[in-house]
Specification:
Blueprint (H helix, E strand, L loop, with lengths): L7 E4 L8 E4 L1 H9 L3 H20 L4 E5 L1 H17 L6 H4 L8 H15 L4 E4 L4 H14 L3 H12 L4 E3 L3 H4 L6 E4 L2
Parallel strand pairs: 1-6, 2-3, 2-5, 3-4, 5-6
Helix pairs in contact: 1-2, 1-5, 3-5, 6-7
């Protein structure tokens, strides 16, 4: 990593993509929940770029921690509860209230899996204590929320520095990374 005091911001829509790109869950959530035409357009173009790069560059990989699958489940369930005026805490206090939304959550989860299909992925799971140590170091060193620390710590564990996220504010203070975003 470089000694830069802040992240280098790269434009995911225009700049040449790196050989391996770690991706934040928010890109996938934005593709499913697009409620902003500009963000929806950026997501579609980003996905097209990822698919094109996968097809044309045999070494190109999308990287992420397998916690992304759990995060998507939680995000989909929270979205349905919020959409119907309920608190996300109901998932713990009264999980039966999710029952009417199971089919919708499953459809959305299948869409997420379809988005991932066709991309060459490196999925890093939590089977290694050194990975958890790197995640905890990342969380405490940069004062990140746990989900952000999982993604960034996994990237650091893989000795990579290219991270795509719509959460520029959360990651722009991280020195030495290339932060890929749509703006």
């Amino acid at each position: 990593m470089t000694s830069s005091s802040i992240a280098t911001v790269r434009n995911i829509l225009r700049d040449p993509l790196p050989g391996k790109l770690f991706v934040d869950t928010n890109f996938f959530k934005s593709m499913i929940f697009a409620n902003n035409p500009a963000k929806e357009s950026a997501c579609k173009y980003f996905l097209k770029r990822l698919r094109d790069e996968t097809e044309n560059n045999p070494k190109f990989l999308i990287g992420f921690n397998t916690v992304i699958y759990y995060e998507m489940y939680i995000a989909l369930a929270h979205h349905q509860l919020k959409k119907h005026g309920m608190s996300k805490n109901i998932m713990i206090s009264d999980p039966q209230k999710l029952k009417p939304y199971i089919a919708t959550i499953k459809r959305q989860y299948d869409l997420f899996l379809e988005i991932l299909k066709g991309l060459r992925k490196v999925e890093i799971s939590l089977k290694d204590g050194k990975l958890m140590e790197k995640i905890l170091e990342t969380q405490t060193n940069y004062r990140l929320q746990y989900a952000d620390a999982f993604h960034l710590g996994t990237m650091f564990f893989a000795n990579e520095k290219d991270f795509a996220s719509f959460d520029v504010a959360d990651f722009k203070q991280i020195p030495g990374i290339n932060l890929w975003c749509a703006y």
